[in-house]
Structures are given as structure tokens and as C-alpha cells.
Amino acid sequence: MATRSAMAMSLLSRVLLAVTAVAAAAAAAGDDRGKIGICHGRVGANLPSPEAAAALLRQNGVTRARLFLPDPAVLAAFASAGIDLVVGVPNENLTFLASSGPDGAARWLQSTILAHAPAERVRYLAAGNEVLYSNPFYAASLVPAMRNLHAALAAMGLDGKTKVSSAHATSVLAASYPPSAGAFDAASLPVLRPMLRFLADTGAPFMVNAYPFISHASDPANVELAYALFGGAAAPVRDGALEYTNLFDATVDAVAAAMEKEGFGGVPVAVTETGWPTAGHPAATPENAAAYNAEVVGRAARGVGTPRRPGVPVEVYLFDLYDEDGKPGEEFERHFGIFRADGSKAYDINFA
């Protein structure tokens, strides 16, 4: 029977190998994941035009954005402004893309995306959003659709430019505390295992939508505000030799640990949504939103990585460009906007 010290060394060796693999892949790709992006949802009335939204991003030094839908006008405006895009593939399109083969996927790509934005502006295709959480009907179509989209891109000579992944809710994890105990929900593994193989083979990241605010709002007794906010007063979480002072890092590393358990420690993590609302909850204030998002931006810019993957930048997309007054759910869901509709900032923040 292995001694505890030998087991600990074995675990440390696996972690170091995973970090080395992720860092090597990043270096080989000319990694620039430290740049920040901003999500642009359009579930609202009286939102500024796509052209105004794109200009606002450029005026603030932001050159990446996530679009949840392949809206032709938004694609054209953002691409013309030189903004690199994560383009969402709607959940309801996955069945067709899974069954139509690479040729059908190529036709969809050409008519839905590439007719409006050149391929050099499309950084990722996010096939579905939180399918395993909110639309399990499409789960069986998810990986086949991703494979067909990748095959279509490869046939066009674009697979080195545009990567295919899928954005997940953190509920894809069955365990996340401490982060080293991170493990995927067993019911999702029949989809996640082939997806992880695909991501590893194609060099695409595992995408996760992470909201420490929602974790705090849902369970304030166990998720203290300071820990969700990167606050210096937060009681640190010890996890073996590692220490966590914030929930953002802990979430990213729980995902990394879950991937390592499945044998895919070399797959990077991209946070495709994170943010903090300014109203609709006692903790939702402009001051807290400014503190949270500024810390996310600063950490991305410095490329500090996480305790489990130090020095490996985490690609991050802040949610949301504007408030979306048409969103369902709790009141705070409608107040994640970093900018007001007139282009002024909802709070003081810089993106450099």
C-alpha cells in the first residue's frame, strides 16, 4: 500500500505535468489569452445599435467579445470594427448540425456566420450554451455537432484559426470543494468524455460560465461575500499545499481537477461568462461590481493563472456589455451591464 507521502508526490507530479502541458500548448499557439473580452447579450429593449456597441468596445480598448447568437447585423458590425469573436451556435441548431455531416455544417457556417464575418475574426464557435444544465434534450447532439463543425472548418483550411467548444454551467461539476476534489457529474460523463477527447485533439479550451456572485447569493452562509469578491478579508481555503483566497480561482481549478481525473489535464479552461450585477440584490452594487470585475481584468492582464495552474493565463469574458431588461429570472439578472445605453460606464473600470 502506497504511503501518504508517495501518494501526495504522485498527485503533485500529475498536477505539474498538467500545468506543463497547458503552458506548452499556450506557448506553441502564441498565447494571448490574457486579453479580456466582454459578452454582448441582446435580450432587452432600446439597446444601442450593433455599430455603437462595437465602437464602444474599441474606444475602451476591448478587442474580444462573446456573441450568444449569430445575429447577422451584430456579426458584421463587430467584425468590421476588428473585434475577435466567440460566436454562439444556438442550442436548437445542434440537432441539424449533428445529423447533416460536415457538408451540412459547412453550409450552415457559410450562410449563418461567414457570410457576415470573415473567418479571421471568429476565434471560437461555442456550440450550445449550458446544454447539459438547461437543454439536455440536445445533449446527444452536442459532440457530433462539434465534430462536424470542426470538420467543416478543416475542409476550409480554418481549423487552425477557429476552434470549436461548448460553454457549460458550473453545475457540470458534482464536486468542487476543495478544488482538488473537483469531479464531473456522473450523468454528464457520456457526453463530457468524448468532448474532452475532442478538445484535447483540437487544442480548444473547456468553456465554463462562472458566477461567484450567484454562489454567494444562493448560499451566503457558506460562500462569504469577501471570498466571492476577491476580498482580502476572506478566510483562505487550504487545499493540500495550495491556498485559495477567492471563489473564481477555486472554480477554475475545480474544473481543471475534474479534467485531470478524466485524463485530460492538458486542456485549458476559458471562462466564457463571469460578472457582478449592480442592482437587484443587497450584494449587487456598483462598488462590488467594480471591485470584482477590476480584479478579473487585472489578473487576466497579468497572466497570474490560478493556484493549480500558476502563470497560465485564463481567458475571460465579462458579462455583460449592457443591462438586459428582457432577461427572465431574478431581478439582478437584468443588471449586469458594465456600460449604460448612452455609452457611459456604470462604474469606474479600465480594461488594460
TrEMBL record:
Keywords: Glycosidase, Hydrolase, Signal. It comes from the Eukaryota. GO terms for molecular function: glucan endo-1,3-beta-D-glucosidase activity. Residues 1-27 form the signal peptide. InterPro entries: GH (IPR017853), Glyco_hydro_17 (IPR000490), Glyco_hydro_17_plant (IPR044965). Gene3D superfamilies: Glycosidases (3.20.20.80). This is Uncharacterized protein. It comes from Urochloa decumbens. The lineage of its organism: Eukaryota, Viridiplantae, Streptophyta, Embryophyta, Tracheophyta.
